[in-house]
């Protein structure tokens, strides 16, 4: 059965938790052979038989994720989830790469200008609520002020988490966002407003740090892509020189690089002597003299005089393309911490919810507690059991 790879833009896939949910939903479907995630650009490449794609898209719809086809595949209609774009590629395919990058404007792109002030204000308000609770625990005006400050802090910091958590609960998924939503709501209902606000603010800041790290990785790849020119000056059969896309230049062609130009393709110098600045690829701070028989790499700069080189690798297999491919594979790979957290959350979150439900429903029958007291204890359990340190530290670690 023929397998094709179709790339989809998953708007709401912005962290490891969403990746784990999608992997779990699609991994067991018949006909799905591989899934390749790129969280930096929020894309998913599905390697599957064409007839298996509708079932995969339906599975995405069921768990609340929109899917937008990037290379001619079928698109799933929009759902309540929102997000940015994704991409998967073969190294050196500049045109597709640039296109996806140009349209990859997710939350991380504007985080410095909008998210940080908002989350900073939420953290300050949560801190103020904690201070009031500590300094005046019994005073009614202080209590009302605590509640107001905490409510505003949660509204500022927790809207995104609440939206994801409610979507997860609506689709029957017990993930970390669902646990955060229920635990913070429970803390607010039992009167622990400052704690609810502080947990939500710290979690939102941790996700902000993760988004910034992904953003930096994406811009690093963009910088690498900008190193190699898209065109090269190629000698034709009649001896003329003609500029053509670097992606179409074959191995063995002769390319001319003028002084000051970047080298578009890997090759061996056939004519000329010059100094080549290789700092962008090798890190060498001093230009290296090149003459006939010496090798040059795509992305380096010819400084002194014109060179003619015989191409030794296509654009998709150049040294620079392989570096970009290695960077993207490293970015897409799942860290050991992330894999452990996924396994932990798969057991821990349902167990906490199940235990809380048992406390609320069974203790009145088994221990004679009042129903109101049982519900209160269940909410306390959810607040205490919410793994705040793990929730906050994992995005930062990843």
What is the fold's blueprint, element by element?
Layout: E1 4-9, H1 16-27, E2 32-38, E3 43-48, H2 53-62, E4 68-69, H3 94-102, H4 111-135, H5 140-170, H6 176-189, H7 193-227, E5 231-235, E6 241-245, E7 254-257, E8 267-271, E9 274-277, H8 279-282, E10 288-290, E11 295-296, E12 301-302, E13 307-311, H9 319-332, H10 336-366, H11 371-385, H12 388-397
Antiparallel strand pairs: 1-3, 1-4, 2-3, 5-6, 5-7, 7-13, 8-11, 8-13, 9-10, 9-12
Helix pairs in contact: 4-5, 4-7, 5-6, 5-7, 6-7, 6-11, 7-9, 7-12, 10-11
List keywords for this structure.
single chain, 398 residues, alpha+beta, 6-stranded antiparallel beta sheet, 4-stranded antiparallel beta sheet, 12 helices, 13 strands, 53% helix, 14% strand, elongated
Give the strand order, joined by hyphens, for the main sheet: 6-5-7-13-8-11
Q: How would you characterize the largest beta sheet?
A: 6 strands, antiparallel
Order of helices and strands: EHEEHEHHHHHEEEEEHEEEEHHHH
User: What share of residues is helical?
Assistant: 40-55%
Overall body shape? elongated
The unreliable regions are 73-112
Tell me the total number of β-strands: 13
Structural class: alpha+beta
Distance between the termini: 37 Å
As a percent range, the share of strand residues is: 5-15%
Radius of gyration: 27 Å
| Helix run count | 12
- Determine the mean pLDDT: 78
